[in-house]
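User: Could you check the structure of this?
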Amino acid sequence: MTVLKKLPDAEFEIMKVIWENEPPITTNLLMEQLGREKKWKAQTLISLLSRLVERGFLRTEKKGKERTYFPLVNKEEYLKFESSNFMERFHENSFISLVNTLYNGNKLDESDLNELSEWLKKRGE
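Assistant: Sure, the predicted structure tokens are below.
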């Protein structure tokens, strides 16, 4: 099993595109969906993909001249890891601290709080 580590932003952007597509993922597909938007050169993308392979997030196969990539870490697994680290680091694992920070920063409004309240009621049933 891969020991998860926080991904740099550029590598996370690549993983988001990989998670949105059905494997195998080609370099060409990634360039179409991400490279042009980010104005990355193909070599930049290839270097970032190599790092993701080294870190255990992807595995790669070569078919002819083209490399294909397969995710080894799924999106839910990584988001759970990141969320857990965030909660521990910034909120001492306190959900109330997180909600309070979002509310005081005007990131939550009354409808968000009502939705959260309904969610909590359903979880308690």
